[in-house]
Amino acid sequence: MLSILACGMVFFPGLFYGLRKVLKSAFTHWSDADVVVVSERLVSSVHASLATVSGVLVVNTCRDVMNDRHWLVNSFVLFGAPYMAYDLYAMYLSHYHQQRLINNSTAHQNHSLQTVKAFLSKERLLVFHHMALLLVFMPIVLFFRRDLGDFFIACFWMTEFSTPFVSLGKILIQLGLENSKLHWINGVMVLCSFFTCRILLFPYMYWMYGQQFDLPLHSVPFHLPLHCNVGNLSIMVPQVYWFILLVKKAHRLYRRKVKVQGPKHE
Description:
Helices cover 77% and strands 0% of the residues. It is an all-alpha fold. α7 runs antiparallel to α8. The longest helix is centred in the C-terminal third of the chain and has 36 residues, at 226-261.
C-alpha cells in the first residue's frame, strides 16, 4: 500500500514539474501564469484519463454490483490520493501567478497568508471538493465499506471522462484558438460528456442496482440506506451546479459569436 501511495506522490508532482520545464522552453513568450495553467490542465487530463480507463475496466468486470471485487479499486485510490493534494497546490500556484499577471506584478509579489486566503475565497467549492475526496471518500473506500461496492466506486471514476475536454478548452484559449472550429467542437463534447458522465451516471447506478435486485428504478432509493442517498445527492448537486454554469457560458459564447458574425451576412 505504501509503495503505491509513494508512486502517486512522485508521479503527479513530477509530471507537473517536468511539463513546466518543457513548456517554458518550448513557449518562451509565455508568462509563468500561462505555463502553470497549461501544465496543471495537462496533468489533470492524465489523471482523468487514468481514472476513466480504470473505471471502465472495473465496471465491465463486476457483474454483482454490490459484492464483486477488483484489485484495481484500492490500488488506484491509493495512487490517485496524492493527486488531490498536489492539485490543490497546482490550483493555488495557478491563481497566484494569474493574480500577479493581472496586477502587473505590483501585488502578490510573494506567497503569503493573504494570497492563500484569496485563493480559498475564489475556489472554495473546488477546494471543498478535493478535501472531501481526500479526507472522506478515500478513508471510506479503504477502511469502512466492508469490501462492498467496487462497481459504484468505479462509476464515480468514470465521471472524470469530461475533464480532458474541459482542460483542452482552456488550453485552446491559451493558444489563441478560442474562435476556432476545434474549440467549438470541444465545447459540444464538454457539455455532452459532462451531462452523460456526471449527471446521468447517478440514475444509471440506481438502475443497475435495481436490475441486480429486481427493483423498478423509482423504488431503488427507498431500498437503500439513508446515508447512501444523502452521499449521492451531495455529490450530484455540485455536478448539476457546474453543468448549469457550463451551459450558461456556452450560451454566452454562442450569442457573442452570432452577434459578431451577424453583420457579415447582411
